[in-house]
Amino acid sequence: MTSDLQGVLDEVYEAVRPVMGGGSVADYIPRLAAVDPDQFGIAVMTTDGERFAAGDAAVDFSIQSISKVFSLALVMAGDGDEIWQRVNREPSGAAFNSLAQLEYKRGIPRNPFMNAGALVVADHLLSLTPGEQSPVLEFVRAESGNPEISVDALTAASELSHSDRNSSIAHLLRSFGNLTNNVDAVLARYVEQCAIAMTCEDLAAAGAFLARRGVRADGSRLLSSNQARRVNAVMLTSGFYDAAGEFAYRVGLPGKSGVGGGILAIVPDVCSICVWGPGLDGSGNSLTGMTALAELTARTDWSIF
Amino acid sequence: MTSDLQGVLDEVYEAVRPVMGGGSVADYIPRLAAVDPDQFGIAVMTTDGERFAAGDAAVDFSIQSISKVFSLALVMAGDGDEIWQRVNREPSGAAFNSLAQLEYKRGIPRNPFMNAGALVVADHLLSLTPGEQSPVLEFVRAESGNPEISVDALTAASELSHSDRNSSIAHLLRSFGNLTNNVDAVLARYVEQCAIAMTCEDLAAAGAFLARRGVRADGSRLLSSNQARRVNAVMLTSGFYDAAGEFAYRVGLPGKSGVGGGILAIVPDVCSICVWGPGLDGSGNSLTGMTALAELTARTDWSIF
Amino acid sequence: MTSDLQGVLDEVYEAVRPVMGGGSVADYIPRLAAVDPDQFGIAVMTTDGERFAAGDAAVDFSIQSISKVFSLALVMAGDGDEIWQRVNREPSGAAFNSLAQLEYKRGIPRNPFMNAGALVVADHLLSLTPGEQSPVLEFVRAESGNPEISVDALTAASELSHSDRNSSIAHLLRSFGNLTNNVDAVLARYVEQCAIAMTCEDLAAAGAFLARRGVRADGSRLLSSNQARRVNAVMLTSGFYDAAGEFAYRVGLPGKSGVGGGILAIVPDVCSICVWGPGLDGSGNSLTGMTALAELTARTDWSIF
Amino acid sequence: MTSDLQGVLDEVYEAVRPVMGGGSVADYIPRLAAVDPDQFGIAVMTTDGERFAAGDAAVDFSIQSISKVFSLALVMAGDGDEIWQRVNREPSGAAFNSLAQLEYKRGIPRNPFMNAGALVVADHLLSLTPGEQSPVLEFVRAESGNPEISVDALTAASELSHSDRNSSIAHLLRSFGNLTNNVDAVLARYVEQCAIAMTCEDLAAAGAFLARRGVRADGSRLLSSNQARRVNAVMLTSGFYDAAGEFAYRVGLPGKSGVGGGILAIVPDVCSICVWGPGLDGSGNSLTGMTALAELTARTDWSIF
């Protein structure tokens, strides 16, 4: 397969071209709203370590919610199944930032990828690794082999000044006893991990441990094979806001999207994939990214179904 | 009627005796949880200025949500109908501190007596009267003629340290653009007005302007007759958390209850009534207070229906 | 007051003229959609038996949900407080035909004036008075002294053929064990009572027992004074779909509206009022009717607040 | 793998033994409530046509919601993507028979496996294949090669007499214009397909077309490879009521459960699996069935993640 993978990526790039520039760039964060919408990149890293790319795969973008995959993996690596006492792993059927559902469920988020769940994970990770800086940054640097990866300070500042919705969620979690650290400290960590800026190439490399069944770039094990499998399962059922079913139906891979326009997708035992295009569809997922992944699985036998 | 009103109050006191000590004292604020549950007081102030009382009518208690009546009246006095652009006046059919409904209504609280609505009113009042102290305290002192009325600092501190739910509501309001001041400043004012400690006698006097159709104790006008009528209407439809219908059905008066166990009720053109008993029923209203008011309207022609 | 009441009604008629023809006629029932929107009538019947009217007060219209007042009164007359085991009396904060709330409350409707509650009342009334015809028709004929009042067969047929929403509610009630008769039989009764056609004059007369504290036109007692008071209380808190607070605020009277454009309002011990204008406002209440009642209470001392 | 598959099934049977008899048998249908809870069966059919089984794999049970997989496949075979205009394919996050969500979504069910979605599919299938009998029965007979498979008349009758909830859903769908046939006709078809009684062995065979990428037992094609993949994707995200995430996490296979205690699971290109045990866990899925499938994927490389 991988012999002609570069050709497949080139085909996918051409197939995506007609929708480039479509969709709407996230506008609630000024920094994101300023991104040029006509960009698109795709990168693949195989479990053998081969790398392939097409388009704007070397351009930095804000990883946003894709960071939730890394924080979840780090919490599971650090504290096993403890996190599942505090957050469920069911698809939500509600908006990513819904308070209603959280209230109804008495402070237990439906899954770790909704904002509420990611805040609980961030709180848990903060307890495991106190200190100034999120271990997520260190992790993605190590996995991609790129020590230059950094938090975009303007994005972080911009998000902190638009964080009333997340503050509301965090205080609600705390009112139910499901946030143990100070709200501001948790939000700072959360915003920091979301504001990490990376390229498709680096992100594909950083997520490759999930294709390698939990093994890190240096050969050490972050997660057991079972744990890696389970992160993939949560990605498939809950990784796409209110379009998890649509993604499973059209693409058929575990994945996680972010409002910066990136999507990380995993083909277990084969490769990790990162696509990026800033324009979002009505569900908040990258329009070109979704199209590219659908085209990619149509040209390969990678769909898990 | 008022000739034998003292006799009626004494009868009501006797009728309430069997349920004294019943219900549950609010326990989410330690200071409230420590109140002796076996107390009960009732006080009436007529539009002619006569005062009647029975039981523990001279014991201070925490007025809590009853303060929302005063803050609403002060906002209406200061800024006319402006507040109704920011809050509706419909009964909610949901818990007093529901976030789900607020989210669904995109940040417009259903009425000014739910916590969300009262926070919007507090925010509006803070904009109208900036500064350290809530004008509610000054107002109840002036109306009751008791300059000793004060904020119970322990209650206020206790509430501030248990304010995650209200912080969550305030941030959600702010995320919808319906809170203009700093969240902490609004919460401080809100907690301060709720922690005012007063007696039944003083509270009946402080609320008498609503029985006098808007005229204050000193003869000046706070609200127009129409405005006073309208505050009464909002009290009737929304003054009792999820038991507004029950109160209208059993008692038939505009009123507002607080989790401190107090209830302020208005008989337009006749009198204002304050009852107090710390034990709450399942809806969060004073068990003895509800009973007393039902007994009182059964013995008078005061029901408005 | 009543000496110049005719003059007041004439003034109200003039005050309403600018909004006549406004609003939207109910369109989900073809028969209602065909009504000429430029009509408006008002009628008052005092507890002394005097009658006043202005405008199109002698034109028949479909009473629709106003019939729910009569069915509730008849059930309370026949079976005391039993009905309150099956339906609450709280305002709903949701649409009149909401299934979500009913599901959440496990089959106990919030109040007897939502469709769900009215279906439970109709079911109870059917058990009390089995047979072909609803006792509501007989009751309004007797109270108004007009034996010609009848069910509009075309309206009833039209409603039966558009009754999927009500069928859904009825089956849901039955799934919770809160409907004892056959769904079709209950719906037939319900549709029949809603399709009664009456004039403002007759409807004011038919509702006058609530102003007379439960006493019927022939001097016999239908409800105790307390029961009549309580029906009034339920009307105030729940009589206007999602605009109960608005009506209490603007008008200040117990009342019940119907999508046919009629409103029945009660001034306890004084009079009953019926207004009618087919155009509905955004909440489903008569636009001219609401305006007329607000103008009326502004010109009288009838507001209960 | 399949060389020692019989040994694996025997191991799984032993691993399940400690929880046999646990859980609660569905009690809302008398016929289901009467089933002996101590039974457990498992059957596998490979894409090569090999068959393996252990335990009570030859005992008939009521397939209930598993039938929804067949009706969906038949509708897709008959009418391509048309059905997706009428039903979404997102996980619901709500109970399988929720009306609230359906009301909020204005009559478009979240997915074809909730009752609402399955009723829409049944309606569509009825339009495609009018007549007395559901094509589902004919299909499972043909695929399993067992012409004796039949509808359990007692179960069907029992369900029809307890169908108020489904009637409510069907009428609500119709009120939104999303049910075109008569409610009773749709319900009859729906109840009929749910009441089919089959063994694990026959059910594994009947579902094997999904492991064979759409190819029927006779070699003809029911669905395109893409369509089969997509049915599998919907099963994974929506096949387990409110435990889709749990199933993906623990088992990692597309599947569909029924309240009769059966589960059909698919390993694409490898095999179809049917497990059955009548006791249900808190989410309504077979307790022994879930355990068995988790044990099975732990012993094989069949998890798709």
From TrEMBL, chains A, B, C, D:
Key word Hydrolase present: yes
GO annotation terms (biological process): glutamate biosynthetic process; L-glutamine catabolic process
SUPFAM superfamilies, sorted: beta-lactamase/transpeptidase-like
Binding-site list for substrate: S65, N115, E159, N166, Y190, Y241, V259
InterPro entries: Beta-lactam/transpept-like (IPR012338), Glutaminase (IPR015868)
Alphabetical UniProt keywords: Acetylation, Hydrolase
Top-level class of the enzyme under EC nomenclature: hydrolase
Chemical reaction(s) catalysed: L-glutamine + H2O = L-glutamate + NH4(+)
MF terms in GO: glutaminase activity
Family to which this protein belongs: Belongs to the glutaminase family.
Subunit structure: Homotetramer.
Record-given protein name: Glutaminase
Protein's organism: Leucobacter aridicollis
